[in-house]
């Protein structure tokens, strides 16, 4: 009820802000030549004036949960953010960068409930479990924050490590998902900030599914364990490139200090990959190659992918020359049937460089219905062919000179106007990871032989 009240106050404040902006610009409108811009774009600019942007950022950042997560999902997708209004993009970027930590008293309450004794005394939850616990988090995300701690001697001896990262979920995050997403959807529709063809309801549905998994730390712990086994060097075979399994490090889980709302894992060192841009070209090429290979390895060998491309989830340790993988809440499993079609789609745009085959597979997988205009079909095929460019380039593809983002951006207006069906549900999360890998390689200025990587995992489609 309180969250609904917050949204009500926010909606009222935004309306007042828009009205004030309209009154302020009446004089300017009367003196200016009338144009055809009195449409949803001008309404959006009125709605998202500076004061309203501040209201949105302030409220959504404090409420966190689904509201902040949806902002992250929309803003991290480069193709989507290029289709929305600059004003909304500004909101999403600011929300993504905002951080409001949980007060210590709330932290103690959650930890006592999850790890404390039956009497719920907040002083009991550390006893016999942690020798040290830093109450100030070193990282914060949409639904939780992360603390550094040290295990008690008993547990350190049992697990073979002392230093741990403890992720604690914000109270109410899980139960507020549905209402937060519904209310945020209403705000976006009311403000007309998203263009026709964006299929907001499909994005909301995907966010709902992902968030419910991400709010279950027991699920995340099981995926952490799964990836630890999948990426074990013992699991490699001659078909994999030398070193791909050795390239990654997965932290170990501490099961007895993990619940649905608390996740305790081994602390692994490293810096986010976004901060490795100063390294030499060879190192940046190596990082880009391993991240690109990880995408195809996850999809076409494992059938399961960690779909959150946030660069803070990938930590490079210069000492060990390994990439640490953390945060497996957004892990998705894909059916063999879907992966076969998606593999054929990538092959059509990559190795085969075949537009007709691309259109045929796009119909099968559900990107097209068959009733679209020729303009829409061509724009869709254009976008897929552009996406497949690195995979058909023989030799090292130089991401520093790529124009993929710009060229795909040019196809978006047509697709938003003429699209008859939303993209397949599986591709919402999959493309977040794949586009994130592209953007990372571009940021690093990496040169990657994507063709060789592609052939390794998709040779059956050649």
From TrEMBL:
Domain ABC1 atypical kinase-like: 94-360
Pfam family, one: ABC1
An annotated Gene Ontology molecular function: transferase activity
Gene3D superfamilies named among the record's database cross-references: Transferase(Phosphotransferase) domain 1
Origin species: Mycoemilia scoparia
Protein family membership: Belongs to the protein kinase superfamily. ADCK protein kinase family.
InterPro entries cross-referenced by the UniProt entry: ABC1_dom, ADCK3_dom, Atypical_kinase_ADCK, Kinase-like_dom_sf
Superkingdom, taxonomy of origin: Eukaryota
Protein name: ABC1 atypical kinase-like domain-containing protein
């Amino acid at each position: 009820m309180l969250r609904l009240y917050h949204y009500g106050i926010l909606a009222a404040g935004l309306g007042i802000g828009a009205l004030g902006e309209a009154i302020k610009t009446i004089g300017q409108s009367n003196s200016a030549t009338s144009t055809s811009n009195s449409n949803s774009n001008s309404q959006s600019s009125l709605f998202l004036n500076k004061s309203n942007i501040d209201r949105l950022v302030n409220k959504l950042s404090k409420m966190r949960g689904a509201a902040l997560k949806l902002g992250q999902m929309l803003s991290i997708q480069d193709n989507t953010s290029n289709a929305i209004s600059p004003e909304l993009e500004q909101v999403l970027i600011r929300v993504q960068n905002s951080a409001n930590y949980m007060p210590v008293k709330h932290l103690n309450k959650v930890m006592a409930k999850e790890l404390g004794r039956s009497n719920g005394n907040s002083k009991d939850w550390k006893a016999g479990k942690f020798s040290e616990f830093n109450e100030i988090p070193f990282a914060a995300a949409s639904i939780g924050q992360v603390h550094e701690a040290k295990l008690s001697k008993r547990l350190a001896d049992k697990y073979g490590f002392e230093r741990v990262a403890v992720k604690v979920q914000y109270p109410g995050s899980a139960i507020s998902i549905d209402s937060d997403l519904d209310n945020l959807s209403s705000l976006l529709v009311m403000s007309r900030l998203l263009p026709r063809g964006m299929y907001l309801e499909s994005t909301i549905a995907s966010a709902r599914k992902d968030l419910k998994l991400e709010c279950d730390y027991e699920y995340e712990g099981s995926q952490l364990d799964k990836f630890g086994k999948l990426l074990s060097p013992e699991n490699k075979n001659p078909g994999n490139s030398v070193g791909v399994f050795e390239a990654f490090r997965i932290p170990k889980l501490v099961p007895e200090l993990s619940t649905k709302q608390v996740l305790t894992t081994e602390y692994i060192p490293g810096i986010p990959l976004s901060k490795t841009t100063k390294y030499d070209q060879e190192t940046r090429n190596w990082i880009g190659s391993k991240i690109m290979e990880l995408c195809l390895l996850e999809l076409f060998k494992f059938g399961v992918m960690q779909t959150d491309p946030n660069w803070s989830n990938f930590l490079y340790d210069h000492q060990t020359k390994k990439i640490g993988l953390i945060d497996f809440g957004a892990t998705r499993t894909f059916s063999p049937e879907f992966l076969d079609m998606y593999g054929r789609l990538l092959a059509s745009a990559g190795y085969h460089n075949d537009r007709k085959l691309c259109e045929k597979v796009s119909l099968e997988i559900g990107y097209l219905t068959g009733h679209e205009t020729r303009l829409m079909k061509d724009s869709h095929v254009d976008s897929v062919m552009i996406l497949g460019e690195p995979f058909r380039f023989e030799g090292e593809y130089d991401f520093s000179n790529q124009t993929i983002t710009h060229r795909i951006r040019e196809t978006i207006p047509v697709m938003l106007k003429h699209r008859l069906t939303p993209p397949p549900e599986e591709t919402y999360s999959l493309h977040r990871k794949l586009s994130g890998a592209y953007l990372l390689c571009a940021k690093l200025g990496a040169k990657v032989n994507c063709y060789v990587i592609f052939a390794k995992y998709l040779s059956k489609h050649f």
